[in-house]
Amino acid sequence: MIAWVTTYLIWIMVAGFVAVWLFAEDRRGKLYLGCSAVAGLVIVLILAKIAGSLYYDPRPFTVAPFPKPLIEHAADNGFPSDHSSAAGLIAVVIALRHRWYGALLGIAAIVLAWSRVAAHVHHVTDVIAGLAFGAVAAVLGTLLVWWLFDRTRLLTWSPLARLIGAPPTDAPGRADEHRQ
Predict the structure, then answer these.
(1) Which of 56-70, 101-115, 163-177 has the highest mean pLDDT?
(2) Which site in 15, 35, 102, 149 is 20 to 30 Å from 179, CA atoms measured?
(3) 23-27, 160-164, 165-169: which has the minimum mean pLDDT?
(4) Does some domain include residue 179?
């Protein structure tokens, strides 16, 4: 059971994200949610790469007394947990828009993190850092998308306006020129 959860729960979480994106969002919400997830993914990859280069934590099965992992895994740096990072990102991006679905995905993220430790492929610090990096990246990605779309009026003057059905207007700054 632990091996199954460790291997497949992340895919169930991705399916949950897609389901929320498809059925719980309007056109504008889909754009916000999708862009927030992509921005968060880029941010979490950068955070994980930096953290992994600054701190090395060998996998539990590579150090004495050599616990046998429940799944096949490379004997590389376990810090931070990529699965936990992705799970944290998915849960928080959804939670910022839909609390109930986000809470369910948050529970799934914690279960996934626990299963990675129970399967002897990560230490507790690896999965906690992964969940934290995913959460931070989700918040930063969502803020970045909010700033780009709402503060710069990107959605009202770009081709993206057609995607959400908003009538395009002049580019920022140009509307002020016409008023003078």
Answers:
(1) 101-115
(2) 149
(3) 165-169
(4) no
- Mean pLDDT along residues 101-130: 96
**Cα 45 → chain centroid:** 10
Are 16 and 22 spatial neighbours (Cβ–Cβ below 8 Å)? no
Amino acid at 48: A
Q: State how far the Cα of 2 lies from the Cα of 116, in Å rounded to an integer.
A: 8
Q: Which residues contact 155 (CB under 8 A, 6 or more apart)?
A: 28, 31, 149, 161, 164, 166
Q: What is the pTM of this model?
A: 0.85
Its domain, for residue 43, covers 2-167
Confirm whether 172 is domain-assigned.
no
Domain count, the chain: 1
Rounded to whole angstroms, the Cα distance separating 74 from 71 reads: 10
Is residue 129 a part of any domain in this protein?
yes
Contacts of 135 (CB under 8 A, 6+ apart): 88, 89, 91, 92
**Alpha-carbon 114 to chain mean position:** 18
Is 178 a domain residue?
no
